[in-house]
Write a structure and sequence with these properties.
- This protein has about 375 residues and is of the alpha/beta class.
- Helix 2 runs antiparallel to helix 9 and helix 3 crosses helix 9.
- The protein is globular and about 65 Å long.
- It has two domains: about 90 residues, no CATH class; about 250 residues, Aspartate Aminotransferase, domain 2 (3-Layer(aba) Sandwich), CATH 3.40.640.
- About 35% of the residues lie in helices and about 15% in strands.
- It binds pyridoxal-5'-phosphate.
- Pyridoxal-5'-phosphate binds next to helix 4 and helix 5.
Length: about 375
């Protein structure tokens, strides 16, 4: 154990506390921020918002990108775009950050938890298919849950720590069942599956730029889609449904104040300029960890088949939860920050009554996975 701690300290070249993930501001961040302040365009109208949206759409290979105040808001709006209504049901994975389930809940919808794959950590197409075949039927072109009689409107898989899930197979199943695919790509900017960027397989994808993500705007998010109508609608309902008018307030529905301010977008434009550098550094760190852990009993989590991961957060797999707890205890006590993967969503008080499949893979991973320091060096 001491060897692991020493190695991580040596890798990050410090004896000080090593956080799990800190942002890097090594480019034009200050310059663009100053420009915002000098121009007085600090709020949700401004050139950096437009610049960022254009650049982001082009980077991921999507027709449209709509910037939002954070990733949770991006997910919330994505679900509204998917026509999720009160009482609908949404399939997702139990092994995710709470934001996925919060966004579902904001719509008055309920999650259904389907198991994950051990190799991707993400939603298992096999488990999804089994759940649908056993529990659902198509009635009037809608996927109806035979147990609850509710509509299964959307499916929200998540690319955990940047590792793509088997998203093409998931898309195929969703299409058969008339379920809209919304990708929670919050963690996977820079990750591709079969050479296509994560977040662009479904009808809608959502990303986050929270302080701990691969690039950050302090807080921020973005919705991507190829559908012009959905893109226009996303912009409209994130901007209080304000109808353009030269001087009057006109709003045509109840909507949200979710647009990303220009200041945050300025940070993002600068961060995007260094994204490829960040991705390169993360792959270098993976090689360093891979080499070290190959000689240890601890297993490093590597990118699954057919995919290129951004390696946002490095993860290791311990033998059991006793070893995991020991690992967490000793590393954190010695100034090396480590954190267990999320608790399963279906075990939280708010979601304990939600329908679920057998979640044995999710449980297995929950008891063993720990994130280790992953910052760009
Ligand atoms: C970070 C994250 C989000 C969005 O979080 P915000 O903090 O609202 O930007 C959503 N889903 C997952 C899986 C995340 O990791």
């Amino acid at each position: 154990m001491q060897k692991i701690i020493d190695f991580i300290k040596q890798t990050f070249n410090t004896n000080e506390f090593i956080p799990l993930h800190e942002p890097r501001f090594i480019g034009n961040e200050k310059k663009y921020l100053n420009d915002c302040i000098d121009s007085t365009f600090v709020s949700s109208v401004g050139k950096y918002v437009d610049m960022f949206e254009k650049e982001f759409a082009s980077y991921v290979g999507s027709k449209y990108a709509i910037a939002t105040v954070n990733g949770t808001a991006a997910l919330h709006i994505s679900l509204i775009l998917a026509d999720v209504k009160r009482g609908d049901e949404i399939i997702t994975q139990p092994l995710t950050f709470i934001a996925t389930c919060n966004a579902i809940s904001y719509c008055g919808a309920k999650p259904i938890f389907v198991d994950v794959d051990l190799d991707t950590l993400g939603l298992s197409p096999e488990s999804l298919k089994n759940f649908l075949e056993k529990n659902c039927e198509i009635v009037d072109n809608k996927c109806i849950n035979k147990t609850t009689k509710k509509t299964v409107k959307a499916c929200v898989p998540m690319h955990a720590f940047g590792h793509p899930c088997k998203i093409d197979e998931i898309k195929e199943i969703c299409d058969i069942w008339n379920i809209i695919l919304v990708e929670d790509s919050a963690e996977s900017l820079g990750s591709t599956y079969k050479n296509k960027h994560t977040g662009t397989f479904g009808q809608i994808g959502a990303f986050s730029f929270n302080g701990n993500k691969i690039i950050t705007s302090g807080g921020g998010g973005v919705i991507v889609t190829n559908d012009e109508y959905l893109a226009k609608r996303a912009k409209h309902i994130t901007t209080t449904a304000k109808v353009p008018h030269t001087f009057e307030y006109v709003h045509d529905e109840i909507a949200y104040n979710y647009r990303l301010p220009n200041i945050n977008a300025a940070l993002l434009v600068a961060q995007m300029e260094n994204l490829d550098k960040f991705l390169k550094s993360k792959r270098e760190l993976t090689e360093i960890y891979k080499d070290f852990f190959s000689k240890s009993k601890v297993k490093l989590v590597l990118e699954p088949e057919n995919s290129k991961s951004n390696y946002w957060l490095q993860a290791v797999l311990l033998d059991n939860n006793k070893q995991r707890d020991e690992f967490l205890e000793i590393t954190n006590k010695n100034g090396v920050m480590t954190r267990p993967i999320w608790k399963l969503m279906n075990e939280l008080e708010m979601f304990k009554d939600c329908q679920k499949t057998d979640l044995k893979n999710a449980k297995y991973l929950e008891e063993r996975i720990v994130n280790i320091p992953s910052s760009v060096r």
